Amino acid sequence: MSPMNPIDPDTPIGPGLGEGLPGAGPRRTRRTAAPPTYILTEDTPVYVISVAAELSGLHPQTLRQYDRLGLVCPDRTAGRGRRYSARDIQQLREVQRLSQDEGINLAGIKRIIELENQVTALRSRVAELVDSLEGAATALQQREAAVHASYRRDLVPYQPPTPQSSALVVWRPKR
User: How far apart are CA 30 and CA 101, in angstroms?
Assistant: First the structure.
């Protein structure tokens, strides 16, 4: 009997190498692992320092200096090599622009980056709080609707007479 095709179980695979020979054991099927799925984002560290330097237009020594100062902090490999992401490259370009075009010193640039990161974190927190508040408001409206749905419909709410009205209300019980 021929081994089964792992892709299509209804289609048998032809005889394999060594199959049917004396002393040949059962044929082992080759398992093909699914290709690993890599999700590349802006924050995925993929560029070595030489490529990052070329993409940013800076010298590799400048990138090392920026790393020491904490302006751009790339990820590290197991061997301690730097790996830059697309976001790191953008930040390197921004540091260069602020330094050369705006004349800001590196300490000022570091403070600007810290404040921008803080603003980003605060915006994220505000968005979380708004979502939480909207969820609480929705839950409150649902609870309020449930309470209103539980009201007895045969009762009429009492409304006190207005001061200008001199109307007389007569109530007679049903017999």
Answer: 60
Confidence (pLDDT) at 17 = 47
**Cα separation of 65 and 59, whole Å?**
10
pTM, two decimals, is 0.56
The per-residue pLDDT for 45 is 87
Backbone angles phi, psi at 136, to 5 degrees: -65, -40
Query: Is the Cβ–Cβ distance between 31 and 24 less than 8 Å?
Result: no
Report CA-CA distances (Å) from 1 to 9, 10, 11, 52, 157: 13, 13, 12, 57, 84
Please state, in angstroms and rounded to a whole number, the distance separating the CA atoms of residues 80 and 133.
44
Answer yes or no: are the C-beta atoms of 87 and 56 closer than 8 Å: no
Residue 98 is encoded by which pair of tokens? 């602020």
